């Protein structure tokens, strides 16, 4: 008999959350490999095109289909008592899911996607509701929370945990043979404005603050045919904005990204591409910048982190200051709008004493592009995350929270002052 599988993208408990092209891509890719072999239903708490969210006027999307999530203020969890910020639950109200479960009847399996380790409260909420309404369904958890905090995830009440990217144990548990050539199960959405692509897995660098080497292992490109099939499916569903979730999209670009974009151009495919996961400026050559702009890249997020060479070398040497300046020059010459070029810099990194953050912010500003401070989240199992045991209990995933950690490390006033400075610098460029 064909199994019934429910896919759930859980709500988010956090100080802040914004729909920056967020989709449960890992879960949809896993489900895609089972296309035609299971009967799927989806409940995505974070779907801003859900009929309920669509009635909320203040949640309108920007020109690239990003926007705010529906949210409710809730009490701060105990570990955050000293953090002077509102805490919220983001995503569709709980009763909508309970009604959905009543309406849809029984399921054999429930897949729940996990993302940030410190968002586990939303995952636990979903498990609690499924356990009450559908006690016989087998609950399967996968994603970053499971991979990085397995001991904690063991206590979630799920029946089966999928660690890392090895899906063999999952196929055995389901007793279904997957088809690895199938694209992600995008058609499960009734309405879809944003899609995701991933041309590669992993990253060849080993930055001391990053989870990617631990979660994905070695860098590995996917086949061009697979990526094009996924793009074709997204286009047939009317998607206009596509975010790349690759961690090293530009690595080996002549073998991976360039052939893909050349096909996009040759086939006259018209979509807007975005790179929220940060591009490595080192690999942006004049030719590649030109091809990216021609193929439809609209926003460019560059991972810079700090202009301090000492900091850059200590954390993995992924990019140096002159490489950022060159990349920006190439992107501007290729026709990218400076307002759509952003350099990320880490706020609240534990080696802040050598980061020279203010000088870095002024440097980015001098290039005529936008700066964004990306709050540091200490990730367990990484050198920098483990170093943070000095300040927080790393066994409690809430303490990996990226709003809380910079405040704990440097204090609320200093963290705010740096954010104000960033806003001021962006305003000076007339870029908000
Ligand atoms: S280059 Fe980026 S994805 Fe790769 S390890 Fe460094 S921070 Fe992570």
Short note summarizing the structure:
With 432 residues, this protein is of the alpha/beta class.
Which ligands does the model contain, each kind named once?
iron/sulfur cluster
CATH C-level of the largest domain? Alpha Beta
- What integer value in Å does the Rg equal? 21 Å
Uncertain stretches of 5 or more adjacent residues: none
Query: The biggest beta sheet, please?
Result: 5 strands, parallel
| Class by SSE composition | alpha/beta
**Fraction of residues in helices?**
25-40%
Give the second-level CATH assignment, the architecture of the largest domain.
Alpha-Beta Barrel
Report the count of strand segments: 18
Percent of residues in beta strands?
A: 15-25%
* CATH homologous superfamily assignment of the largest domain: Aldolase class I
The first-to-last residue Cα distance is 55 Å
Keywords:
three-stranded antiparallel beta sheet, TIM Barrel, 432 residues, binds iron/sulfur cluster, single chain, Rossmann fold, alpha/beta
Draw up the topology in text.
Blueprint: E1 4-9, E2 12-14, E3 18-19, H1 25-32, E4 39-44, H2 51-54, E5 67-68, E6 71-74, E7 87-90, H3 94-104, E8 109-114, H4 120-133, E9 138-143, H5 144-148, H6 150-154, E10 160-162, H7 168-174, E11 194-197, E12 200-201, H8 212-216, E13 220-221, H9 224-236, E14 241-244, H10 257-266, E15 272-274, H11 286-295, E16 300-305, H12 309-314, H13 321-334, E17 341-347, H14 357-366, E18 370-375, H15 383-387, H16 404-410, H17 412-428
Parallel strand pairs: 1-4, 1-8, 8-9, 9-10, 11-14, 14-15, 16-17, 17-18
Antiparallel strand pairs: 2-7, 3-5, 6-7, 12-13
This protein binds iron/sulfur cluster.
């Amino acid at each position: 008999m064909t199994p019934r599988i429910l896919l759930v993208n859980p709500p988010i408990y956090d100080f802040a959350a914004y729909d920056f092209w967020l989709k449960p891509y890992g879960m949809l890719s896993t489900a895609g490999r089972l296309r035609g072999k299971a009967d799927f239903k989806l409940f995505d708490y974070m779907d801003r095109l859900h009929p309920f969210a669509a009635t909320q006027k203040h949640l309108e999307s920007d020109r690239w289909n990003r926007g705010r999530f529906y949210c409710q203020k809730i009490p701060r969890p105990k570990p955050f008592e000293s953090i002077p910020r509102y805490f919220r639950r983001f995503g569709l109200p709980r009763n909508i899911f309970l009604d959905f479960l009543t309406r849809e009847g029984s399921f054999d399996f429930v897949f729940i996607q996990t993302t940030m380790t410190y968002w586990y409260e939303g995952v636990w909420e979903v498990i609690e509701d499924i356990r009450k309404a559908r006690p016989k369904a087998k609950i399967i958890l996968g994603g970053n929370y499971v991979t990085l905090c397995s001991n904690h995830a063991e206590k979630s009440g799920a029946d089966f945990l999928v660690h890392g990217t090895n899906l063999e144990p999952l196929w055995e548990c389901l007793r279904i043979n997957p088809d690895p050539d199938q694209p992600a199960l995008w058609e499960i959405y009734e309405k879809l404005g944003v899609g995701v692509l991933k041309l590669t897995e992993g990253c060849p660098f080993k930055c001391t603050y990053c989870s990617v080497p631990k979660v994905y292992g070695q860098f590995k490109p996917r086949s061009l045919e697979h990526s094009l099939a996924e793009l074709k499916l997204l286009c047939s569903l009317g998607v206009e904005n596509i975010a790349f979730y690759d961690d090293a999209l530009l690595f080996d670009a002549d073998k991976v990204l360039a052939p893909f974009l050349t096909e996009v151009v040759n086939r006259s495919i018209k979509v807007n591409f975005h790179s929220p996961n940060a591009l490595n400026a080192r690999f942006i050559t004049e030719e590649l910048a030109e091809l990216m702009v021609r193929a439809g890249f609209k926003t460019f997020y560059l991972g810079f982190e700090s202009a301090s060479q000492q900091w850059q070398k200590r954390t993995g040497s992924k990019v140096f200051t002159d490489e950022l300046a060159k990349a920006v020059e190439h992107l501007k010459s290729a026709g990218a709008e400076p307002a759509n070029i952003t350099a990320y810099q880490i706020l609240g990194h534990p080696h802040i004493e050598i980061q020279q953050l203010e000088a870095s912010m002024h440097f980015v500003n001098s290039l005529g592009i936008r700066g964004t401070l990306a709050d540091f989240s200490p990730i367990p199992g990484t050198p920098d995350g483990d170093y943070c045991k000095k300040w927080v209990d790393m066994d409690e995933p809430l303490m990996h929270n990226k709003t809380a950690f910079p405040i704990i490390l440097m204090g609320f006033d200093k963290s705010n002052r740096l954010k104000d400075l960033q806003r001021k610098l962006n305003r000076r460029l007339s870029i908000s």
